[in-house]
Amino acid sequence: MKHFLSIEGCHQKEIIELLNNARAFKADRRYGADLLAGQSWVLIFSKPSTRTRISFEVGLRELGGRVLFLAQQDIQLGRGEPIKDTARVLGRMIHGAVIRTFAQQDVEDFAHFSQVPTINALTDEEHPCQIIADLFTISERRDLQDIKVCFVGDGDCNVARSWAWAAEHLGFELRIAAPARYALREEIRSKLTSRKIILTQSPEDAAAGADVLYTDVWVSMGKEAEMQDRLAEFAPYQINERLLQLARPGALVMHCLPAYRGKEITEAVLEAHADTIFDQAENRLHAQKAIVAALLQ
User: What are the chain's domains?
Assistant: First the structure.
């Protein structure tokens, strides 16, 4: 694995190895402490972040590396320099890059032109680091082979797309409940072969007997102009006590955060399942250390 750009581009074996290694990194925070000794990694973020930035900065430092954080306005990207030129320059000076931006193509171009290990820390297309942490969180509590995951909300957001590719590779059942115009796009559906990926407009059907109820914000970064339409259309797609009662007893409730209580999830349900949700947030650190380690092999 030279780069980590998407779940789509992963293989089943690679995902399983990442989960196993995340477990080792979580068991001992000192594990791999010299892995990045003498290396400098850069974080280039065009989107604001709490969990992604902190987990990567802490993780890279715990692996022995030096970290430079660059917001888009801090460098010439903010003034229109092509990503391939930035990549050519940084590739001569750094040992790896973590990029959080809008276009998937920017991350792929950076990886190609920099020739250093590159990690997609979120694009509009996918959120692969999040899904590795999510799978790891579930694996701490359930057998991934037998789970039924219900995703409720924007079925074509970056998190839902990455979940679809994870289900494709690992073979578990995934149900995505979304309004018709927010369903997983045909471009992706046409590539999926698993019959266990089920798309529906009914959150109740998706939640019935599910082992995991998962949601994300209804208004992703860059979609703020659509806020009022989205809030109205997604109102029936809230994770609440009524929906939770349809799931399997003891079902996990997950949210990749930040959460907007009273919208995609109720305050009561979030707080009742806070242990899982904030383990999920912590596991970004351990999963991402596993990802970095994999790129150095």
Answer: 32-126 (3.40.50.1370), 130-281 (3.40.50.1370)
Question: Annotated catalytic, 100?
Answer: yes
Residue of 51, 100, 273, 286 marked catalytic: 100
Catalytic residue among 150, 216, 255, 280: 216
Structure tokens at 64: 């022995």
- Using left for φ > 0, alpha for ψ between -120 and 50, and beta otherwise, residue 91 falls in alpha
What is the pLDDT, as a whole number, of residue 79? 82
**Active-site pick, 161, 169, 284, 286:** 284
C-beta separation of 24 from 141 below 8 A: no
Q: Which residue has the tokens 């799978």?
A: 135
Q: Which of 3, 10, 106, 130 is catalytic?
A: 130
Q: DSSP letters along 11-40, please? A: -HHHHHHHHHHHHHHHH-TTTTTTTTTT-E
Could you tell me the strand order of the sheet in which 66-71 lies?
A: 66-71, 40-45, 96-100, 118-122
Mean pLDDT, each 10-residue run in order, the chain (297 residues): 95 98 98 98 95 98 98 84 95 98 97 98 98 98 96 98 98 98 97 98 98 95 89 97 98 98 98 98 98 96
Backbone angle region of 17, left / alpha / beta, with phi > 0 → left and psi within -120 to 50 → alpha: alpha
**Is 106 designated active site?**
no
Give dist(CA 160, CA 183) in Å, integer.
10
Would you report the helix, strand and coil content of the chain in percent, each value rounded to 5?
A: 45, 15, 35
Does the annotation mark 216 as catalytic?
Answer: yes
Q: What are phi and psi of 34, to 5 degrees?
A: -110, 10
Among candidate residues 230, 256, 280, 286, the one labeled active-site is: 256
Answer yes or no: 169 catalytic: no
| DSSP string for 78-147 | GGT--HHHHHHHHTTT-SEEEEE-S-HHHHHHHHHHH-S-EEEEE-SS--HHHHHHHHHHHHTTS-GGG-
